Amino acid sequence: MFDNPDLHHLNWKYWQPRADWPRPRSFVLAEGAELIAHAAVIPAMCAWDSRRVTMLQTIDWVARSDSVGGVTLLKYFARLSDGLISIGGAEKTQRILPHLGFRLAGIATGYARPLAPLRLLQGGATWRLPTRLARAIWRRSAAEAPQSHWRAQRLAVEELSRIASVSPRPRDGLAVTERSEGLFRYFLSCPAVPMQIYAVENADRVRGYFLLAPVPGQVRIADCWMDSAEPADWRALVLCAVAQARHEPQAAEVVAYASDALLAGALRSCGFDARFELPVRVRPSVADAMPQGTLRVQMLDTDDAFLFLGRHEHWG
User: Angle at which helices 261-269 and 231-245 pack, to 10 degrees?
Assistant: First the structure.
């Protein structure tokens, strides 16, 4: 349909059908022939206790500086869903959101772990490079493999039903964003970042999964879940993901988001360091659409899973 790779990506991001959201995902506000604002949405189904609500995360949000078009689009999105999610965002956006009714629902921390220290040089020299190299070499020397009874098996699209039984479930005051076979099909077709999904098995039984998004310089653990509340099991999942990430020839580091204690603890125990924090905010459109407890989010809930700026990516 398109010869330009960028147009392929835009078609995928804005218009390729998603099983969980049949409506449009890209919107403009115009006055006559003049564009005032643009924003796109990433849909999510959030669940906690017995509640399930539709949320929208806004991306690619731009507006003319002399208008309130961006806010107008946000209010329009609020009418399309049970609530809006905001994960991170520019400093100016962070200052505005509380005034628009967004309330804090958690903190997503970005974690990184080195894979091949010398590949950090591909990102160009900066004043922080010597410190980053020293830290990466030390972390790399402490590399650990998952125990032999744990293994990761890459899944083809037609095998996605194998992980249906280990999708994220709310528990112990934790709200989650749900996953489905249709959602994974959509992300595995991303033309900009060739994602890979793996089933994590123990004693020939599927216990969890992880989704990798490799870009030059990085492998992103874009999504993961373990059907367990045991820290050791989550640690095994992370070690399996790191082991697979090592196969990417351009990757200097593996990175992930964690807004829940189990995943955060597993990442730290596997040699990941915290790099930054992103506030997770929710603006409920209906009275009972504010998640109870912490809202667990992943890169897959934002455009960070597939955002690629055409250079080597390092969080260092």
Answer: 60
Mind listing the pLDDT tens digit for each residue in 7-20? 899 999 999 999 89
The whole-number pLDDT of residue 4 equals 66
Q: What is the token pair recorded at 83?
A: 């609530």
User: What's at 276, amino acid-wise?
Assistant: F
Q: Residue 77, CB half-sphere, CA atoms under 13 Å: how many?
A: 34
Residue 120 has pLDDT above 70, yes or no: no
**C-alpha–C-alpha distance, residues 16 and 182, integer Å:** 12
Q: Is pLDDT at 147 greater than 70 in this prediction?
A: yes
Average pLDDT, the chain: 89
CA distance 58 to 211: 22
CB 175 within 8 A of CB 294: yes
Mode of pairing for the β-strands spanning 83-87 and 51-63: parallel
The model's pLDDT over 57-84, given as tens digits with 9 standing for 90+, comes to 999 988 888 888 888 999 999 999 999 9
**% pLDDT > 90, the chain:** 71
* Helix or strand run (H / E) with residue 175: strand 174-177
Token reading at 54: 């539709």
**pLDDT tops 80 at residue 45:** yes
Question: How many Cβ atoms sit within 10 Å of the Cβ of residue 157?
Answer: 11
**CA 151 to chain CA mean position, Å:** 23
216 neighbors 248 (Cβ within 8 angstroms): no
Cβ-contact 213, 231 below 8 angstroms: no
Q: Which domains does the chain show, CATH number per domain?
A: 5-105 (3.40.630.30), 109-280+289-305 (3.40.630.30)
| Calpha distance 299→109 (Å, rounded) | 11
The β-bridge partners of 253 are 114, 218
Residue in 292, 313, 310 with CA at minimum distance from that of residue 53: 292
9-30 CB burial, b ≥16 within 10 A, e <16 = bbebbeeeebeebeeebebebe
